[in-house]
Amino acid sequence: MEYVTKLENQPEALIIGSGFGGIATGIRLQARGYKTTIFEKLDQPGGRASVFKQDGFTFDAGPTIVTAPFLLEELWELCGRKFSDSVTLKEMNPFYRIRFDTGEFFDYTGDPGKMRDQIRKFSPNEVHKYDEFMERAELCYRLGYEDLGNLPYNSLSDLLKSIPSMIRMGAWQSIYKLVSKYFKNEQLRQVFSFHPLLIGGDPSAVTCVYSLIAALERRYGVHSAMGGTGAIISAMVDLYEDIGGTIIYDAEVTKIDVQNRCAKGLYLRSGEYFQSNVIVSNGDTAWTYTHLLDEGYRKKWNDKKIKSSSFSMSLFVWYFGTSKVFDDVQHHTILLGKSYLPLLHDIFREKKLSADFSLYLHRPTATDKGMAPPNHDTFYVLSPVPNLLGNVDWDKEKESYRKKIEKYLDKTILPGLTKSIVSSKVFTPNDFEQRYLAFNGAAFGMEPLLLQSAWFRPHNKSEDIKGLYMVGASTHPGAGIPGVLTSAKLLDKVIPESYSSSKFANKKTGERAYGSV
Ligand SMILES: Cc1cc2nc3c(=O)[nH]c(=O)nc-3n(C[C@H](O)[C@H](O)[C@H](O)COP(=O)(O)OP(=O)(O)OC[C@H]3O[C@@H](n4cnc5c(N)ncnc54)[C@H](O)[C@@H]3O)c2cc1C
């Protein structure tokens, strides 16, 4: 039996949005003694990690590749519980199959021996380069993730502290450039540089610090959750509500009330007002600043600064279910198109729909048959496309683009696809803007360029408004489940201690901050 009470003088925090970042913040603040409420625009939690159920198929809307499971485990530990009692993760082997347009493929794993075998297939003379590259990726993991990723960049001293590490990592060069120093073979260059695309970055422009992802994956593996990523979100919500948190759905926040440059409360679209001196936005930071706060309050993140920022790509996502089972297809497949750098240029710089495309194909039924009706398969395929600053008319292009992808998959790894489609749903950059309030329809917030990262990214503790905090993909450290969970963790360093810093009780009175658990 649960009961939720707000203790006398218990500090309160209001959280806008229930993505990974919003719920993780709720759990952390509850564990620190705050009473929190999450306001979610949608009718379900998870944001980009929400779930579409259609025709008996379960489609994870967004994230599917789960890395750094220790960040999830930590949330449960904070509440005296075990993550593995709530969610079953399966380690992927291979992590991904990377398929080239030529039909050749590279099975990417965390096993050095198998990786060397795969490299040998493409360029026997470069096998020894794997260890050299991974040594560099490890350096970036230690300096870029463990050290700098855990700084809140709340003061200039954090920036100054990071300069020597930035120099050691050669952070000014792009990941494609760094990888090219190790590998001469173009296919291998693509295999070892594509990772930033998973978090909205252009491998030819984002800092090589992101090679840390290769090290992170090798250390902790790549996983999928049984029941899909939606099962993680629903377990996080259960945990959050169990320790006294409240989520209100269909509750879009339309304004943050500010008095004397201090956050005082928020207004919902319904007109209701909620008061608090601590407000955390898990919404897109650019959207939060431009739509929820008057410009008069914004010295740093004013309209001019936001307009001149560069935004990540968007995504075209097609969710589909088939009456045929494609047993040969891995859980995660990356299908690289004919061109690599020119395609990236079209998406990120020209912002035009290229004739070519690269795809990520998700087949959760490879791991969990329960994601589809019996003898059926569940898929989604995504294609990185320009954000809404380009002038693609998605209402017009939507069906022809989908058909082009369908034809390509039918011709390559899903023969017989066209005849077996029994469920279909398309999501375009317009949907990113309308469903998630993503500024410019960008799927991952601001582009993670060096000068839009760390100190230069919108801070977790608002530079403009006292008592306002940011969590999620568009603040520091950045997008992807690990980045977003780390941003929630960083809030522990910038949101003041509540009177009770104990996980479970008010230190003075011993009174619990929430009911029986
Ligand atoms: C298709 C796709 C695939 C991806 N694949 C991976 C992957 O495999 N692995 C990985 O690690 N990452 C992946 N990512 C990235 C990852 O999903 C995101 O970075 C992460 O889920 C974002 O979490 P977040 O906490 O920032 O919030 P979001 O998921 O963006 O959630 C924010 C929430 O706030 C709500 N909200 C916004 N404004 C308001 C408002 N004004 N009032 C009330 N509510 C509001 C929104 O409705 C939403 O629910 C993928 C992303 C996409 C789109």
Key features of this structure:
single chain, about 525 residues, alpha/beta, FAD/NAD(P)-binding domain, 7-stranded mixed β-sheet, 16 helices, 19 strands, about 20% strand, globular, binds flavin-adenine dinucleotide
Topology, element by element:
Blueprint: E1 12-16, H1 20-31, E2 35-39, E3 51-54, E4 57-60, H2 69-78, E5 89-91, E6 96-99, E7 105-108, H3 112-122, H4 129-147, H5 156-169, H6 175-182, H7 186-193, H8 212-220, E8 223-225, H9 229-242, E9 246-248, E10 253-259, E11 262-268, E12 273-275, E13 279-281, H10 285-292, H11 303-307, E14 314-322, E15 332-335, H12 341-350, E16 359-362, E17 377-385, H13 394-411, H14 417-420, E18 421-427, H15 429-436, E19 468-470, H16 481-494
Parallel strand pairs: 1-2, 1-13, 2-9, 6-15, 13-19
Antiparallel strand pairs: 3-4, 5-8, 6-7, 10-11, 11-12, 14-17, 14-18, 15-16, 16-17
Bound molecules: flavin-adenine dinucleotide (FAD).
Flavin-adenine dinucleotide binds at residues 16-22, 39-42, 47-49, 62-65, 198, 252-253, 282-283, 315, 317, 382, 436-437, 443-444, 472-473, 479-481, 484.
What does this molecule look like?
This protein has 517 residues and is α/β, with parallel strands linked by helices. The chain has 3 domains: 12-89 and 226-309 and 449-494, 3-Layer(bba) Sandwich (FAD/NAD(P)-binding domain); 108-221, no CATH class; 313-436, no CATH class. The chain contains 16 helices and 19 strands. The strands form 5 sheets. Strands 7-6-15-16-17-14-18 form a 7-stranded mixed β-sheet. It has a 5-stranded parallel β-sheet with strand order 9-2-1-13-19, with helices on one face. The chain has a 3-stranded antiparallel β-sheet with strand order 10-11-12, with no helix packed on it. Strand 10 and strand 11 form a beta hairpin. Helix 1 (20-31) runs parallel beside helix 9, helix 1 runs parallel beside helix 16 and helix 4 packs across helix 8. The radius of gyration is 23 Å and the shape is globular. The N and C termini lie close together (8 Å). The model is unreliable at 499-517 (pLDDT under 50). Bound molecules: flavin-adenine dinucleotide (FAD). Residues 16-22, 39-42, 47-49, 62-65, 198, 252-253, 282-283, 315, 317, 382, 436-437, 443-444, 472-473, 479-481, 484 line the site of flavin-adenine dinucleotide.
